[in-house]
Write a structure and sequence with these properties.
Chain B: One of its GO terms (biological process) is plasma membrane acetate transport. The complex is a heterodimer of chains A (158) and B (536). By secondary structure, chain A is mainly alpha-helical. Chain A is built from five helices and two strands; from the N terminus they run αααββαα. In chain B, helix 3 crosses helix 12, helix 4 packs across helix 12 and helix 12 packs across helix 13. The longest helix of chain B is centred in the middle third of the chain and has 52 residues. The radius of gyration of chain B is 23 Å and the shape is globular.
C-alpha cells in the first residue's frame, strides 16, 4: 500500500515545516502566504533553495485551507442533520398534540419523520457536490506535493 | 396464524440450501490471497463506489436491525418510525463527521485508527476488548433469534431443532468469516442488499396497492387494529411503561444515532475504499440505500399490523420480530399463486442471507481485531501468512463461545443485549473516535479512560434498566432489581464517556497534552488529505 505499518507513527513533516506548525495557532488565517499552485510557477527565475521554501509555504497554506474547509463542512453538515432531528424529537416528545394534527390525512409527526428520507438524499447530493468543488482539489494538491509524496514512508506498506 | 403454507416452506427450505451453497462457493472462489494482508483485511480496495456502498449499507442493516425495527414499527407505530429514522441518521452522521478522517487514519481495524494518536499497546488491547464487548452481544441477539425465525419460516416447533439451527448458522458464520474474509463478506452483503431492497420494493408496492395507493388509509387501518387507537400514530407508545417516557425516548434515539454507525464492523468497512474520496462516494451510496430502506420497512411494518392485526404480530413473537415476514406474507393475500410463493421465498431468503452476512461480518470484525490488535501488535514481524492464519483461527475462537452462549440465551428477551451493544458503542467508541480524530490535546490516558470508563459505566448501569428485570417483557420477568428507570443507559453513560476522556486528558497535565498536540500535528496532514501518493 501507499503508507507504512500502522504500528509505526507517521513520520513528522519535513524539517522546514515543523517549527512553523508548532508556533502557529491552529485556527489562524492563511493570509500572508503566497498563492497556492506554486508548482505551476515558472521555476527559472528563482533559486532552487527559494523555490523549495516557497512551495513549502504554499503547501502549508493549502493544508491550512484544507483544514478550514473540512472543519466548516463537517460542522455545518453535522449540526444541520442533528439539529433537524433534535428539533423533530423535541416536538414529538413535548408537543404530541401538535404532531398528531392531520395534514393531507396523515399525522404531521409521521410526515416530518418521513421527510428525513428525501432530505437525507438532498443532503448527500449537496455534500458530495460541495466536497468535490471545495475539498477535493485542495486535498489533491496536498497529497501530491513533493515534500509529502516522496516521504520515506511511501510504498513501504507491504 | 403462526406458520406458512406447505409450498412456501418447501420453497424456502430449498432456497436456503441454495443460498448456503452458492454463498459458500462464492466465498471459496473469491477467497483472499494468502500472501497479502491488505487483501485479507480490506477485501478489494478496487470495488466501485456503488458496490462498496452496497456492501457498507449491507453491513449496517443487520438482521437485528431489520427484525427489531420491523417489530417496533408494527407494535408501536410512530416510535418505530422514529427508530428507523435514527438508524438512518446515524449512518449520515458517520458519513459527515467521521468517515473520511477515519479512512485516512485507519488501516485495517478500529485499533489502527486509535493507534495513530496513541501508539501504546494498551490502547490496542483496550480497543480490541471494546470491539468484542460491543459486537458479541449483537452477534448473540442475531444467532439466538435464528432458531425462532427459522422455526417460524420452516414451520417446526421442536426446541432441539431450533438449537440445531443456531449451531448450524453459527458454524456457517465462522466459515464465511474464516474463508471469505472481507472479500467474501462484501459479496454476501452486496447480494443481500440487492435481495432485501428488491423484495422490499415489491412487497411495499403490493401493500400500497391493497390500500388504494393511499398511505393515510394504510396508517388508519393499522391504528384501528393496533389495540392502541390514535396513540399508535403519536409518540410514546414504546416507552409507556417507564416513569419518564419522554426522556427515555430521546435518550434511546440518541444512543442509536451515536452508537449505530460506530459499531466496529461498520467503521472497519471504511477501510475498504482506497481513499477518503472513494469512502465519501461509497458512503453517499450507502446512505442512499439505507434511506430507501426506511420507507420500505415502515410500510411493511405498518402493513403487518394493518393486515394481520396486533394480536397476530404479537403471536409470532412478543417483540414483533416476525413482523417483517408477516407483513410480506400478508401482502400477497390469502390465495397465493406459484409466482407469489416464489416472491415470498425471495423475502425469506433475503432475511436468511441478512442473518448470515451480518453475523459473519461481526465475527470477522472481532477476529480481525484479535489478530491485528492483540497478536500482531505483540509479535512484531509476523509474516502476513501467519497473521492471516491467526485471524482465521480467531474467527473460530470467537465463534465457538458465541454459539454456545446463543443456545443458552435463546429463551430470554434479547432486547437488553442489543441495547448493550448500542450503548457501549455510543458511550465508549463514539467519544474515543471523535476525540482522537478532532481533539489535538487528547492524550493516550484520555483515550483509555474513555474506552474503559464508558464501557464500565454501561456495564454497571445496564443490569438495572427496565429491559432486564421488573416487567413481563424483561429478560428476567420473575425478578425485580430494576433501579435505573430507563430502557437504555445512554442518558448517563454517553456524557460519562465524554467526561472520562476529558478528565483523563486534563488531569494528565500540560506536558502530556503538549506531546499529544505535537503528535497530532505530525499526523494532521495524513488525517486531512490522506496517505501520500507517488509523484505524478
Amino acid at each position: 500500500m501507499f503508507y507504512g505499518n500502522a504500528d509505526s507513527p507517521h513520520p513528522p513533516p519535513s524539517e522546514t515545516e515543523t517549527p512553523q506548525s508548532g508556533t502557529e495557532p491552529p485556527q489562524s488565517d492563511a493570509a500572508g502566504y503566497p498563492a497556492p499552485l506554486s508548482e505551476d510557477l515558472p521555476p527559472g527565475h528563482l533559486l532552487p533553495e527559494r523555490t523549495h521554501s516557497r512551495s513549502t509555504l504554499a503547501h502549508h497554506g493549502d493544508l491550512r485551507r484544507l483544514r478550514r474547509r473540512y472543519r466548516t463542512q463537517r460542522r455545518v453538515t453535522t449540526l444541520l442533520a442533528l439539529g433537524y432531528f433534535t428539533a423533530f424529537l423535541a416536538l414529538s416528545a413535548l408537543e404530541p398534540d401538535f404532531m398528531s394534527r392531520r395534514v393531507d390525512g396523515l399525522p404531521l409527526g409521521l410526515l416530518l419523520a418521513l421527510s428525513h428520507v428525501p432530505l437525507t438524499w438532498l443532503a448527500v447530493v449537496v455534500y458530495e457536490r460541495s466536497a468535490r468543488r471545495y475539498v477535493d482539489p485542495l486535498a489533491f494538491r496536498v497529497t501530491h506535493h513533493a515534500s509529502w509524496a516522496v516521504g520515506p514512508d511511501t510504498g513501504s506498506g507491504r | 396464524m403462526t406458520s406458512f403454507s406447505g409450498t412456501a416452506q418447501t420453497w424456502s427450505l430449498v432456497a436456503f440450501c441454495a443460498v448456503v451453497s452458492v454463498t459458500l462457493l462464492l466465498c471459496i472462489v473469491t477467497g483472499p490471497d494468502h500472501e497479502d494482508l491488505d487483501d485479507y483485511y480490506t477485501g478489494y480496495r478496487s470495488l466501485s463506489p456503488l458496490r462498496n456502498g452496497l456492501a457498507i449499507a449491507g453491513d449496517y442493516v443487520s438482521a437485528a436491525t431489520v427484525l427489531t425495527i420491523g417489530g417496533v414499527i408494527a407494535l408501536c407505530g410512530y416510535d418505530g418510525v422514529v427508530l428507523s429514522i435514527s438508524t438512518l441518521l446515524s449512518l449520515l452522521v458517520l458519513m459527515f463527521l467521521l468517515a473520511e478522517p477515519l479512512r485516512n487514519a485507519g488501516r485495517f481495524t478500529m485499533g489502527d485508527a486509535l493507534a495513530r494518536r496513541a501508539p501504546q499497546r494498551s490502547v490496542r488491547i483496550t480497543a480490541c476488548l471494546v470491539t468484542i464487548g460491543a459486537l458479541v452481544p449483537m452477534m448473540l441477539v442475531q444467532l439466538a433469534s435464528t432458531g425462532q425465525l427459522l422455526a417460524f419460516i420452516l414451520g417446526f416447533s421442536s426446541g432441539a431443532v431450533k438449537t440445531g439451527c443456531i449451531v448450524g448458522v453459527g458454524t456457517l458464520m465462522v466459515a464465511y468469516a474464516a474463508i471469505g474474509g472481507m472479500r467474501g463478506t462484501a459479496l454476501l452483503h452486496i447480494l443481500k442488499m440487492i435481495a432485501l431492497l428488491g423484495s422490499g420494493v415489491v412487497v411495499t408496492v403490493l401493500i400500497l396497492r391493497l390500500f388504494g395507493w393511499e398511505p393515510s388509509s394504510l396508517f388508519d387501518a393499522a391504528a384501528a387494529r393496533s389495540q392502541a387507537g390514535a396513540r399508535y400514530l403519536r409518540s410514546g407508545l414504546e416507552f409507556v411503561g417507564g416513569p419518564h417516557p419522554r426522556l427515555d425516548m430521546v435518550s434511546t434515539q440518541f444512543a442509536i444515532v451515536l452508537g449505530g454507525a460506530c459499531l466496529p464492523h461498520v467503521t472497519m468497512r471504511m477501510n475498504t475504499a482506497d481513499s477518503a474520496r472513494q469512502v465519501r462516494r461509497s458512503m453517499s451510496w450507502a446512505v442512499s440505500f439505507v434511506a430507501l430502506f426506511v420507507p420500505l420497512i415502515t410500510v411493511i411494518g405498518v402493513g403487518a399490523t394493518a393486515l394481520v392485526g396486533r394480536a397476530g404480530v404479537a403471536a409470532g413473537d412478543p417483540h414483533g420480530n416476525t413482523a417483517f415476514l408477516l407483513g410480506s406474507r400478508a401482502a400477497f393475500g390469502p390465495d397465493v399463486t406459484e409466482f407469489e410463493s416464489l416472491l415470498f421465498t425471495t423475502v425469506t431468503s433475503a432475511l436468511f442471507l441478512t442473518l448470515l452476512a451480518s453475523v459473519a461480518s461481526m465475527t470477522l470484525a472481532c477476529a480481525n481485531s484479535l489478530a491485528h490488535d492483540l497478536v500482531a501488535s505483540r509479535r512484531k514481524g509476523l509474516s502476513p501468512r501467519t497473521e492471516q492464519t491467526v485471524a482465521r483461527l480467531s474467527a473460530v475462537l470467537i465463534g465457538a463461545p458465541v454459539i454456545a452462549l446463543a443456545t443458552l440465551v435463546q429463551h430470554h428477551s434479547l432486547q437488553p443485549l442489543a441495547t448493550l451493544s448500542f450503548c457501549v458503542s455510543a458511550s465508549a467508541i463514539a467519544p474515543a473516535l471523535v476525540y482522537s480524530l478532532f481533539w489535538r490535546r487528547f492524550t493516550a490516558s484520555g483515550l483509555l479512560c474513555t474506552l474503559i470508563g464508558g464501557s464500565l459505566t454501561v456495564l454497571a448501569l445496564m443490569p438495572g434498566t427496565n429491559l432486564v428485570s421488573g416487567s413481563a417483557a424483561a429478560a428476567f420477568p420473575g425478578h425485580d432489581f430494576n433501579w435505573f428507570p430507563f430502557t437504555t443507559t445512554a442518558l448517563v453513560s454517553v456524557p460519562a464517556g465524554f467526561a472520562f476522556g476529558w478528565l483523563g486528558t486534563v488531569l494528565r497535565g500540560r506536558r502530556a497534552q503538549q506531546e499529544a498536540r505535537d503528535r497530532y500535528e505530525g499526523i494532521e496532514r495524513l488525517l486531512l488529505a490522506g496517505p501520500p501518493r507517488r509523484p505524478r
